[in-house]
Amino acid sequence: VSRCLTSPKAASSLPQELQDAGFQLAEEERPQLGEGSFARVSLVVRKDKYYALKTVTKVPLEIRDMAQHMKREVSLHSRLCSHPSIVTLHDSFEDTRRIYMLLEWCPFGSLSETLATLAHSDVKSALPLSITACAAAIVVDQLASAAGYLHENGVIHRDIKPDNILISSLTPTDVELRLTDFGWSCLANDAAEIYSKCSTPGFAAPEVFAGRQQTTASDIWSIGAVLRSICGAPETYRRFDPRLADLDQRLTRVDPRARPRAEEI
Known about the structure:
It contains ten helices and eleven strands.
């Protein structure tokens, strides 16, 4: 059972706005959910409901000329988080030193953590291929739904990968996912951004690293790469589920124009 950190030192690590609203840091085995070079994500609680608090330090952002980049992330996320497969952004605010994002907490961590756990255990090798393929199909279906919503609203995510796919609910027969992290997202008609090299090697479409124009089809490639991270190369499961193997190859076609739209997946 989680408890709250009520010491003055713990309280002072939260912004005053959250303290005034009754939020406290949660005392967990993992109170800090993640940390990067200029951001950290902590678990906070208010009235027995848990949230993920993303705190971004402004000084490194200003040094790297990324302050506007961060504000764009907040702006895009805030207007696109009503979709059931996108992490909810409950609130955002800033003070002189930091930017804060109060996000939906997904208790089962990221898809990458789940895949890493399976890879270092005997569980995955013991799973029937039918279960792996079924789970992969559920993941792809929810990602396609989230990506389709972004694309309908003129936004390209540009960094769909297991690290940015959180697991909100997990049962023996189903999983609910949330797409997160809009740090690289941009408007599809933003000429200053759609040629910039971004995304993550292994999950970025060929046109990204070739310096060609990125489109909504670039997200489709990334969904195909996520599928492969779950199932492996299509040759490994073609006999069992040829439709899933064929989908893999359609999603990762080199020509962006030949890939299906999100609503066609």
